[in-house]
Amino acid sequence: MTGALGNPTLLRWLPVIVLPPILLLDGLLSEKGDPVDLLSVVIAYVAVLPLALRHRLGFFGMLPLLLGGIFLVLWSFEPGTTVVAIPAWALFELASNYGRRQTLMAAVAVVPSVIVSVLPFADGGAELVSVTLRNIAVCELALAAGYLVWHNRAALEREAERRLGEERLRIAREVHDVVAHAMVAINVQSGVAAHLLEHDSGQAREALLQIKRASGDALTDLRATLGVLRDPDHAAPVGPAAGLDDLEAVAGRLRGAGVEVVVDVDTVGAVPTPVHAAGYRIVQEALTNVLRHANAQTVTVVVRADSDMLTIVVADDGEGPDQPTAGARAGVRGMRERAQALGGTLEAGPRPEGGWRVEATLPLAPAPTRS
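Structure (tokenized):
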């Protein structure tokens, strides 16, 4: 049944399939008008045919054809009350495709249109009032139902656009973190290698190996991230997502550049995968900023998790300025966005004893979704 309703051709011809039998049956049961004959059958199908051709005719082109068909039906076999289904179907289509403004205009136009249509065929007095009110109500309800369909579809589209924007931001943030960290590490290690090349070939060789590892890891991460853009429905990461257990690898790149890094990770209980990944990226960006801006000798990374909160503290003894540079501010903003996306917080600033400190708190329970 779902597959049939999802068929656009069937939906387009649905009024031609459904409405004529209803009109003809009502005509057979009606005490008014002439008996139903072959001409009545032809007229019933011709009257609703413009509904199937609405995409080609447009609503303004369909309107006079529908009005002519309705008068032919009433002239031919005069069904009881079901003839209003023809304009009601058209009004539903109008509201569901064109939205608020056209729906309001049609709702106003329905009243005089129904009155003009009913006057030649209804008896006077109470019957005229009853038929007129009933037909107006059916048409207005069709408009309301169509507008509800349009509104829900528009809401779904806005939600899809919001999710797409968030996914683009997430991918941009991932690419920034991967490339920035790799480029900073490569820049520092290449400087070390150039300095030691003539004096200590062993250390220079180790620096070059660090460059190779950093660039290889960055390429792997980029392939995993950009694979989502190539095939968002079926793309799978090249390897498992990096997490808090991989912080030693990040620290190793700083150690290769001559910075002493102490990593202290103590997590109690299970840490959700999104928190693992966000925590890793926050530490990675904080350490990248140390290499890029701080001129630090030592850095400490402390990660603690209890039953409901993960806390990350990255502190260095560098000589960074009280006011961070534009690049550092962008890095802090990216870390803060990661934390806030999970319902957490991030603070960054100079330490009283000198150096720089980044502290993030990430709740282990899922953040509430936005409606």
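Confidence is low (pLDDT under 50) at residues 1-5, 234-239. The CA atoms of residues 349 and 357 lie 6 Å apart.
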